[in-house]
Specification:
The complex is a heterotrimer of chains A (about 500), B (about 325) and C (about 325). Chain A is α/β, with parallel strands linked by helices. Chain A has 17 helices and 20 strands. In chain B, strands 1-2 form a two-stranded antiparallel sheet. In chain B, helix 3 packs across helix 13 and helix 4 runs antiparallel to helix 5. Classes of the chains: A alpha/beta (about 500), B mainly alpha (about 325), C mainly alpha (about 325).
């Protein structure tokens, strides 16, 4: 009997299928790794297990008994706790308060005993020894801590709770080697107590160091499960990408000119540190690597959305200081976000308004001349093959893919020379994706240059002329020509042990 | 079921038209003469006073981010006061008085906008604080006594102009047309809807978010000033606190007119119908001799009921 | 390879978890305390009798109602909500208690019934607010506005005109003293003690978490809706206490007495360093904020500011203080 079993789990978010009949079985006292490329559904599956998201279909059992968790509290009551990838910390509260949230130690009078809480937190922190970093005290405010310190707090928070099953979703993403070592000690301690762990990670070395068994997911379903001792890195990579496609190198698609339209030297912003590169006219430069290694931050920094710590940027040879979006637009650089719902689409507004807003801002027009604007938009709409019932229809009547086209069209109407695409095809149907790729090719042929970040590695390789691979905020590799295949990409991104290149 | 009901109510204009007619019928049944042309005109005058204020409130709420203007009452009184004192019952002073009131109330609104966008003070706090300042200023200037006299031309606005309707109603209709044009045909209007619908998306698209919001607050001040001038024309002179009774109904009119409190959707026509509805409702309650407390309770309950359809927020569980 | 956030070679203790923002978020009322002392000093200069026992007691009696209201408002604001109906609850409880005591006559039992009914009303009103905001997920601002209108309406129903008479035995409880200690001081200490006890319960931590990051609190298993409801009930309770204190202060009832107190309660909370966005703040700060507002009134009066200027000066100070308070609290929260 399994400690936990999930079978035929299905989940959709709006029109997007996140899980399609996923299966997973966890034995008591084991460490079970769950891996897969970006968007394969592993986080969603675990959130369902932890009660934070409800499944549309499928069955979940704990120790053979069917369960259904209405909220994380219910899951916790059954002994399931989760480390959330996006962290579940309260920024304005202290380390100790966060670790013990909901189960603060109380004195005899039933009131919270701060002293004991701080002391217990100090004990937990002491387990990390020198690996902690300055400023990580029980009384420190989360908001003052660095990213790795926050992760440690979240880990301690999860470990401090009584549980039978613990889920770690990318718990080591920001940690260094010493810190990871301590975390693994804790996980082994859990194992010794007969508690089970689900470990999601992009880092192969860590997976092999800690896991007993490994499950690979792809496109919302489970591909395979194997004992760590019985498999190899390459076999897992094959399973993640689909063996047939793994080493296929994509043919060259565009003919970029030599002229550099965008030069970036020593850029530091957000997660990024000391990034330099040049973008040529008519080329698509892909930003690849593990999700969240700074690719988005690069695009947003260029557009003026996040502040620059350091760096020199030149557009067409002339210096450019990113301040806010409209400044970039006036230098012919436009940004399209892939997170449609959050910062792309104005959901309750009609399609027309979603389309014209940028061009009005750039042109400093005061009056909305519907006829003139409609005529201006017509070519863009046609090229993108954007179909809708009427311009006045609310944009939500469109599918996810078409909504993304609207966001793209909005910026394209400003006729940019440089396009910053931040994961534009996330969660979009295949047909629309194909349209968008063809469209990007057209743009390149006309001399537009594109910086493309995509969480779909296949797509990134197929569409880009060169690919910059990012890891922990630095550019660790550049793939061009024959190296543009998934095996090379994964080797560079997943298997490069932080500074040590592995040569195939 | 709630969703279906909501979709039905999602066409506020139609519903409100029906509701208003129903109220008029009820009123007429309870008190013959209620729906007579003269009475209807009287109610339209009051509705116009409320409606103009509600236009500014509408803009502020449309911008989202918990936008609200609680200082409208004070600005109305201030506008009436300033106008009356500059006019001193003399038509020759009218242009100067109008220009001054419009400029001054626009500036007060602009200060609200600056506090909200630049200092990032929540609109609730900022406008409530400004209300205190404006009312305090009025006390200083009037010493509590009614002050200022309207110019004869201004008083004319409540006299019938055409089709039996007084000038004030036409002014209100003009405001309505202006709002419709502004919201549908100008970049400013489009930007207002954009930042209310999704401020981050709007920012990324290049919309000047801060400038748009500041202008919305400034216009709210302006509209309150206009309403103050109209009030001056209606009553002849003004006293401290004259505008206070318009604040809460201006918010209610906007909400029942179909503008979401979260911002980003809603048109002024709905607000106009909402203003008429509220005024007729109030008249009925007065006709029924329902004492003030009863009216209060009914307002509150109606507003709560409206929240059921218009004001719910999203759940935490995915 | 080290993470991009490199650690120093040795783990240096940054002196108790570094940063200005950390100390501000632990003691958000420090600025308010400073302002309070400055104002008290100014007051003492302008009014030589300020520091005498009698004057201090009478000041405390005047400041107490708003302070009680502000204490209750603090809890709701910490949870990132707001209670714009607490003034209405004050009015309602105020007139209900007066009416009951008049109805039931002059006896200890009558007082007890009156007080119990008042508190029950406060709890019920708070519960209605909480259910609408936390469970039906209505927007807090307009909803508590709406309930405020209802509560004032009910107050007007019970007592259409200010009036009523409360027997001396009752209001002497408020104005009187026990063993030389003014009762208002005892009431303040009791209320503050209650609030401080609440501030050490698990509920309080859950409340701050809810205000700090509602989604994260939910993921952690905090019963977010229940916590928010409780905060509104607590606010209703303290509003009832305020209404009772006003009965003691004025010895009569007034259905509109709560009118301006709502805004003042929010002002007091913000002045005390509590962030309107939630999580950062303290009851201590709100008590100081209530006192600061009272002292501002005193200073304006004793500075012989002409009567008609008082409202404007007060409004301007409050607006300036609110701006400052919001700006400070935002830094504490980030």
């Amino acid at each position: 009997m399994h400690a936990l079993a999930a079978s035929k789990i299905c989940k959709r978010f709006g029109g997007i299928v996140a899980l399609d009949g996923a299966e997973f079985a966890l034995d008591a006292g084991e460490v079970h790794a769950l891996i897969g490329s970006n968007g394969c559904g592993k986080s969603t599956l675990c959130k369902i297990i932890a009660g934070a998201v409800g499944a549309d279909a499928g069955e979940l059992t704990v120790n053979g008994e069917r369960v259904s968790f209405a909220n994380p509290g219910a899951a916790a009551a059954r002994g399931v706790e989760m480390f959330y990838q996006e962290l579940s910390l309260i920024p304005a509260m202290t380390v100790a308060e966060n670790i013990f949230l909901g189960r603060e130690p109380t004195g005899r009078n039933g009131l919270v005993d701060r002293g004991r809480m701080d002391a217990s937190a100090a004990r937990l922190l002491a387990g990390f020894g020198d690996a902690l970093g300055a400023g990580l005290q029980p009384q420190a405010t989360i908001g003052d801590l660095s990213a790795d310190q926050r992760q440690i707090v979240e880990i301690l928070k999860v470990l401090a709770r009584p549980s039978r099953i613990v889920v770690f979703d990318e718990a080591t993403a920001a940690l260094d080697r010493d810190q990871v070592a301590v975390v693994f000690d804790r996980i082994r301690a859990l194992k010794a107590e007969g508690r089970s762990t689900i470990f999601i990670s992009h880092r192969m070395d860590e997976v092999f160091a800690i896991a007993d068994r490994i499950t690979v997911m792809r496109n919302g379903a489970t591909v395979t499960t194997a004992r760590a001792a019985d498999t190899s890195r390459d076999q897992l990579v094959m399973a993640m990408v689909g063996a047939d496609q793994a080493s296929a190198t994509q043919p060259a698609r565009h003919r970029p000119a030599a002229e550099e339209v965008l030069t970036v030297v020593d850029l530091s912003a957000g997660k990024l540190a000391h990034v330099s590169f040049a973008l040529r006219r008519g080329e698509i430069l892909g930003l690849g690597g593990l999700h969240g290694q700074g690719q988005s931050d690069l695009l947003r920094a260029l557009y003026g959305v996040i502040p620059l710590r350091n760096g020199v940027i030149a557009i067409g040879g002339r210096r450019f200081q990113p301040k806010w979006p409209i400044a970039a637009m006036r230098r012919s650089m436009a940004y399209v976000s892939g997170d449609r719902a959050k910062n792309g689409v104005m959901a309750i507004r009609p399609i027309f308004e979603n389309l014209v807003v940028s061009i009005l801002a750039r042109n400093r027009d005061h009056v909305v001349a519907r006829g003139k604007l409609g005529a201006l938009l017509q070519p863009v709409v046609e090229r993108l093959k954007l179909k809708f019932s009427s311009l006045e229809a609310p944009v939500t009547e469109l599918s996810g893919g078409n909504q993304q086209k609207v966001v793209l069209a909005r910026l394209l109407a400003t006729e940019p020379a440089i396009l910053l695409l931040d994961d534009p095809t996330k969660g979009i149907d295949l047909g629309t994706k194909a349209d968008l790729y063809a469209f990007m090719d057209d743009l390149c042929a006309q001399g537009v240059s594109i910086l493309l970040h995509s969480s779909d590695d296949k797509e990134l390789l197929a569409v880009s002329d060169r690919v910059l691979v990012f890891n922990a905020g630095r550019c660790v590799a550049e793939l061009a020509g024959a190296e543009r295949n998934e095996l090379a990409l994964y080797r560079a991104a997943y298997l490069t042990e932080r500074g040590e290149a592995e040569h195939a | 079921m709630l969703a279906r009901l909501r979709a039905f109510l999602g066409r506020p204009l139609a519903i409100e038209a029906i509701a208003i007619l129903a109220l008029l019928a009820v009123g007429e049944a309870l008190s013959p003469g209620f729906a007579s042309p003269r009475q209807i005109v009287n109610q339209l005058i009051i509705a116009a006073l409320l409606g103009v204020v509600a236009a500014g409130q509408n803009l502020v709420i449309l911008c989202g981010q918990e936008g609200i203007d609680l200082s409208v009452g004070g600005i109305i009184s201030f506008g009436a006061f300033l106008g009356g004192n500059l006019m001193q019952q003399n038509d020759a002073n009218l242009p100067l008085a109008l220009a001054s009131v419009l400029a001054a109330t626009f500036l007060i609104g602009l200060m609200n906008g600056a506090g909200v966008t630049l200092l990032r003070i929540p609109p609730l706090v900022m406008t409530l604080g400004m209300l205190g300042v404006v009312n305090g200023l009025l006390v200083v200037l009037t010493r509590g006594w009614p002050s200022g006299r309207a110019a004869p031309l201004l008083v004319e606005i409540v006299q019938p102009l055409a089709l039996g309707l007084p000038g004030i109603v036409f002014i209100w209709l003009a405001v309505g047309v202006l709002m419709a044009l502004a919201l549908r045909r100008t970049t400013f209007g489009l930007n207002v809807y954009a930042i209310g619908a999704n401020e981050e998306a709007a920012r990324l698209a290049g919309v000047p978010v801060r400038r748009t919001r500041m202008l919305a607050f400034a216009l709210s001040g302006l509209f309150s000033g206009i309403s103050g001038l109209l009030l001056l024309g209606y009553t002849g002179n003004v006293f401290v606190g004259a505008g206070d009774q318009y604040m809460l109904p201006s918010i209610i009119a906007v909400v029942i007119g179909g503008t979401s409190l979260a911002g980003g959707s809603g048109a002024y026509w709905g607000t106009m119908a909402g203003a008429v509805f509220l005024v007729v409702l109030q008249s009925i309650l007065t006709t029924l001799n329902i004492p003030p407390f009863g009216r209060q309770i009914i307002y509150g309950v109606v507003l709560l009921a409206l929240m059921l359809f218009y004001g719910r927020q999203r759940r935490l569980r995915g | 390879m080290l993470s991009p956030f490199t650690k120093p070679a040795t783990a240096v203790d940054a002196g108790g978890a570094g940063g200005w923002s950390a100390s501000r978020s632990r003691r958000p009322y420090l600025l308010a305390a400073a302002v309070f002392f400055v104002l008290a000093a100014i007051n003492a200069i302008l009014q030589p009798t300020f520091l005498t026992f009698d004057v201090a007691a009478s000041n405390l009696a005047a400041f107490l109602p708003l302070t009680l209201l502000a204490i209750g408002q603090t809890f709701v604001i910490l949870g990132s909500d707001i209670d714009l109906s607490n003034g209405g609850i004050v009015s309602l409880v105020n007139v209900a208690v007066v009416e009951i005591i008049e109805r039931f006559g002059d006896s200890a039992a009558s007082y007890a019934i009156g007080i119990a009914a008042g508190l029950a009303l406060g709890l019920a009103a708070g519960a209605l607010n909480g259910v609408c905001v936390a469970y039906l997920r209505f927007q807090a601002i307009v909803t508590t506005f709406a309930t405020s209108v209802i509560y004032v309406g009910l107050a007007l129903w019970i007592l259409p005109q200010a009036g009523g008479q409360v027997p001396p035995d009752f209001y002497n409880v408020y104005a009187g003293a026990v063993l030389g200690v003014p009762n208002v001081l005892l009431i303040l200490v009791a209320a503050a003690a209650l609030a401080l006890v609440i501030a050490r319960t698990r509920f309080y931590y859950a409340l701050r978490a809810t205000g700090g990051n509602m989604q994260a609190a939910f993921f952690t298993g905090v019963p977010v809706a229940r916590v928010r409801l409780t905060a509104y009930v607590v606010s209703g309770f303290f509003a009832a206490l305020c209404g009772l204190a006003l009965v003691g202060e004025t010895a009569s009832g007034d259905p509109l007495i709560g009118g301006l107190m709502t805004l003042s309660s929010v002002t007091a909370v913000v002045l005390g360093g509590t962030s309107l966005a939630g999580c950062v703040g303290s009851v201590t700060g709100s008590v100081l904020g209530g006192f600061i507002l009272g002292l501002i009134n005193n200073v304006i009066f004793f500075a012989h500011v002409p009567f008609e200027w008082q409202g404007l000066i007060q409004g301007a100070i409050i607006l300036a203080a609110l701006s400052g308070g919001v700006a400070m609290a935002r830094r504490g929260r980030n």
